[in-house]
């Protein structure tokens, strides 16, 4: 058995899988140690990827050469672009996925990745160097030691996990899987701070027991798109395309709420047995009926779990109430009168490590070459976990090869926003991504993640040449289209009937296509359809390139303004603060500011300005001193 590796990744959830793939694809010899090989890339909760802001993250992971986008596409049973009616910064791809296929595809991709070895076991202990400053390896439950130059911990919800259902408490990291014991205790003894968080999941139902005629149908997009910038990744696109599976919508009602309330006295949440904070934006049904008691009903999405199973996920009905209460309440939902449960809903409490203990590379401040990624850092969600895994894998590889770290900034990627938020501000409740967290969201669109990130990733040796060629072709094509639209004019006779049909004023003379496109009700696809001349010119470009050019033209002014703002921020990011800077020497800084600067050790003025509790006056004082 080989016991020495470049990098060991602990845990094969979404973070661990991306970490292992990235490090191995960059050339590191990787060992992926996970408790159960059957649950690699298990979707612990909803069988879906992407959504608002999360979809942008999946596109970014794909643009960097990660696998989550490809696997989400291949295992999709439905695709929707959310927020199409809003501006392009808000467009968010989302797939409903076949849960089992998602996991098996991940395992297949990893097995086909050279440089990845696997070991099924529980990691119980970390091996620390004799001088106590760096990590050297792991010891497993079977008593085997593995050595590595860097370790990435991605334990998810497993660290001292406790599952709650009504008054029952069961030790576990997920239902049917054991909790991870030992790591938290050791890290805390070494000086790390840990905390508790909680999350929950709804019951799973037998589809054959549901009456769909009482529910609304929610289909996928008529023309499905995909996450990956590569071809042939979606089953819904191309000559052999297959039909998407619809979801359904139903609602709770007052009777359902009344039954749920009968379980409150046994609720682990309301009786104080759960201490950890749960995800604010993904509350349990008992939380919803309490916090929004004025609402008569709550929407539920009935989501199929895959192509070849009758199991159904009841999105919106996460609960940890006693099983009999769950069952009774479910049967009062329209369409659920005869519902049979496969598995009950439950809540889980687990340890996390406040992420302010990390560097922006996701390496811990206390132990060299130890990285944390995913739910262990206080985040929630597959996408948030996957992108941290990718970045930890990349940075672990770069560090052990003495190469400069990769830190994505806030104007470059949602991934940059997420890591910067975690490290500089921390979080005491499960952190999920929103578009509102990004100050430059018009720059961080799902359509341009490849333009933003693929060239960068290619330079690191991760995104391959094929990806880079595609991006270059797209950029070149979009420029040519913009050039054509700016320098050629539409004929009024050709376009006026169409313009009238969309309530847009007639053209009285030849007008540049660019100006016609800037009108609110006019799209590039419509212009191309109406104008044979334009159709001929545009026929050499694919849909994605035309869409890219269209967004750049339609939102030109806004995008330019946002770029200018980002550049101002970049200037602050380029003002470096020496690691040994003596904040105590600045008399005019308040005690709180000094304490926070010493704690968070910002490397730049930009980072210093984002620490919570730091105000513009503190930054002005700092700037004056740095100026001196
Ligand atoms: C019940 C439940 C409900 C959830 N609800 C939601 C929700 O509503 N919304 C949402 O966005 N997210 C939800 N999540 C969270 C979501 O599942 C996670 O955000 C995501 O899976 C985190 O990915 P990860 O890679 O960090 O960890 P995980 O996916 O949890 O993977 C951790 C991996 O590490 C392995 N592991 C752990 N400890 C060890 C060890 N010591 N040795 C070896 N291997 C180890 C495990 O076997 C597992 O493979 C829920 C999770 C659970 C369990």
Secondary structure class reads: alpha+beta
Ranges where pLDDT stays below 50 over 5 or more residues in a row are none
CATH class of the domain at 4-155 and 358-460: Alpha Beta
Q: What's the main sheet like?
A: 7 strands, mixed
Mean pLDDT: 95
Q: What's the total count of β strands? A: 22
CATH superfamily of the domain at 4-155 and 358-460: FAD/NAD(P)-binding domain
Strand residue content:
15-25%
Bound molecules: flavin-adenine dinucleotide
Shape: globular
Distance between the termini: 58 Å
How many helices does DSSP assign? 21
CATH architecture of the domain at 4-155 and 358-460: 3-Layer(bba) Sandwich
Radius of gyration: 26 Å
Helix proportion: 25-40%
How do the helices and strands line up, and which of them pair or pack?
Blueprint: E1 4-10, H1 14-25, E2 30-34, E3 48-50, H2 54-64, H3 68-74, E4 76-82, E5 92-97, H4 99-111, E6 116-120, E7 123-128, E8 135-140, E9 145-153, E10 162-165, E11 168-171, H5 183-189, E12 195-201, E13 204-206, E14 216-218, E15 247-251, H6 254-262, H7 285-291, E16 299-304, E17 311-315, H8 323-330, E18 341-343, E19 346-352, E20 370-372, H9 382-400, H10 414-425, H11 449-460, H12 465-487, E21 489-490, H13 492-501, E22 511-512, H14 513-517, H15 524-530, H16 532-538, H17 543-554, H18 556-573, H19 591-600, H20 605-609, H21 616-627
Parallel strand pairs: 1-2, 1-9, 2-6, 9-20
Antiparallel strand pairs: 3-5, 4-5, 7-8, 8-9, 10-11, 10-19, 12-19, 13-17, 13-18, 14-15, 15-16, 16-17, 21-22
Helix pairs in contact: 1-9, 2-9, 2-11, 3-4, 6-8, 11-12, 12-17, 15-16
């Amino acid at each position: 058995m080989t016991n020495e590796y470049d990098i060991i990744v602990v845990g094969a959830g979404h973070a661990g899988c991306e970490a292992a793939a990235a490090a191995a694809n960059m050339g590191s010899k990787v060992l992926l140690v996970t408790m159960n090989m059957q649950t690699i890339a298990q979707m612990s909760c909803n069988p879906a990827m992407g959504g608002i802001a999360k979809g942008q993250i999946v596109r970014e992971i794909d643009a960097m050469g990660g696998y989550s986008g490809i696997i989400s596409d291949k295992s999709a049973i439905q695709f929707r672009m959310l927020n199409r009616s809003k501006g392009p910064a808000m467009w968010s791809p989302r797939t409903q996925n076949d849960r089992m296929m998602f996991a098996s595809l991940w395992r297949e991709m990893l097995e086909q990745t050279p440089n990845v070895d696997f070991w099924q076991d529980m990691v119980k202990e970390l091996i620390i160097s004799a001088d106590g400053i760096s990590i050297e390896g792991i010891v497993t439950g079977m008593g085997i030691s593995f050595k590595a130059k860097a370790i990435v911990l991605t334990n998810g919800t497993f660290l001292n996990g406790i599952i709650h259902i009504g008054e029952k408490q069961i030790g576990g990291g997920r239902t049917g899987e054991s909790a991870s014991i030992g790591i938290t205790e050791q890290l805390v003894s070494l000086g790390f701070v840990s905390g508790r968080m909680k999350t929950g999941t709804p019951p799973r139902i037998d589809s054959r027991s549901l009456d769909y005629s009482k529910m609304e149908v929610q289909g996928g997009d008529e023309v499905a798109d995909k996450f990956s910038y590569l071809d042939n990744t979606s089953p819904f696109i191309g000559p052999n395309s297959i039909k998407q599976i619809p979801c359904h919508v139903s609602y709770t009602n007052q009777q359902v709420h009344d039954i749920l309330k009968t379980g409150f006295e046994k609720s682990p949440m309301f009786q104080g047995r759960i201490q950890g904070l749960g995800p604010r934006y993904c509350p349990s049904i008992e939380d919803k009926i309490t916090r929004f008691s004025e609402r008569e009903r709550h929407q539920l999405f009935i989501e199929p779990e895959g192509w070849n199973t009758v199991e159904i996920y009841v999105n919106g009905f996460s609960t940890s109430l006693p099983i009999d209460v769950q069952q009774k309440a479910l049967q009062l939902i329209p369409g659920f009168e005869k519902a049979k449960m496969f598995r009950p809903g439950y809540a889980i409490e687990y340890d996390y490590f406040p992420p302010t203990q990390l560097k922006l590379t996701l390496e811990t401040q206390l132990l060299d070459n130890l990285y944390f990624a995913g739910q262990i850092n206080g985040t929630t969600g597959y996408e948030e976990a996957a992108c941290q895994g990718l970045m930890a894998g990349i940075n672990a590889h770069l560090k052990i090869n003495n190469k400069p770290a990769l830190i994505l900034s806030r104007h470059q990627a949602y991934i940059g926003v997420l890591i910067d938020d975690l490290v500089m501000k921390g979080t005491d409740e499960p952190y999920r991504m929103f578009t509102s967290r990004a100050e430059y969201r018009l720059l961080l669109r799902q359509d341009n993640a490849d333009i933003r990130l693929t060239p960068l990733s290619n330079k690191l040796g991760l995104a391959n040449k094929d990806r880079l060629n595609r991006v270059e072709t797209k950029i070149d094509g979009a420029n040519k289209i913009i050039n054509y639209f700016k320098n050629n004019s539409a004929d009024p006779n050709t376009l006026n009937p169409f313009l009238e049909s969309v309530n847009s004023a007639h053209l009285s003379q030849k007008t540049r296509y660019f100006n016609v496109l800037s009108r609110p009700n006019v799209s590039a696809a419509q212009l191309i359809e109406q104008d044979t001349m334009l159709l001929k010119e545009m026929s050499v470009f694919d849909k994605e390139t035309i869409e890219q050019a269209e967004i750049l033209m339609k939102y030109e002014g806004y995008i330019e303004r946002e770029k200018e703002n980002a550049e101002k921020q970049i200037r602050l990011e380029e003002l470096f603060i020496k690691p040994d800077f003596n904040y105590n020497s600045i008399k005019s800084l308040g005690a709180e500011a000094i304490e926070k600067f010493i704690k968070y050790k910002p490397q730049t003025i930009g980072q210093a300005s984002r620490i919570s509790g730091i105000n513009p006056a503190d930054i002005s004082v700092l700037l004056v001193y740095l100026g001196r």
